[in-house]
Amino acid sequence: MNPVLLAAIALIIATFCYASRCYVSPFGPCRKCDGKGRIPHRRGARYCRRCDATGLRLRLGRHVWNYVRRLHH
């Protein structure tokens, strides 16, 4: 098979897998606090502002999906 065709098929499969992951589990662990909700600080720990101390963030693919859905409506 043509290497370009194989790369295109691999890209389509990877995109489908990520889209299904965003559909099944729209939230992923926060990258700043590693899903703990707290960040080490000089005097103990403080709450993560990025995820509001939940440890979860909306995935990039879900952000895109919500934006496209809002545009359509």
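[next item in queue]
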Amino acid sequence: MEQSIEVDIDAAPERVWEVMSDVERWPEWAETVTTVTRLDDDSALGLGSRARVEQPKLPPTEYVVTEFDPGRSFTWVATGPGVRTTARHTVEPRGEAGTRVRLSVEQAGPLGKVMGRLFFKGLTDRYLAAEAAGLKARSEQAR
């Protein structure tokens, strides 16, 4: 089961990517994220990067970046007994100075499908909306 949201942001794609890919700073603009701790070196996010994400109402989760297109997108995946969570983050140019972002979360596996549909659908929708709004606000701020 996949859930997603798109948001148009009045900022250059480079700015949006800068905010979105700096995952350790997400708690500053995403009320749905308490802590993000990188589990590897302090270099920029990239293929194979690992991070522990803590969010209200969810267990702490370790994600691994499985797809990475610098300046454009990254996908990270968390696995647990019977569940695989895939979160995709995509930045696309829109017009002369704008950006469209797509955030999506997919729950797979025997438990993931059931838990995603029955228990976490509303929570995931709220979290995606809050994260999109926070990313928009932070990206549109003057530096």
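[queue empty]
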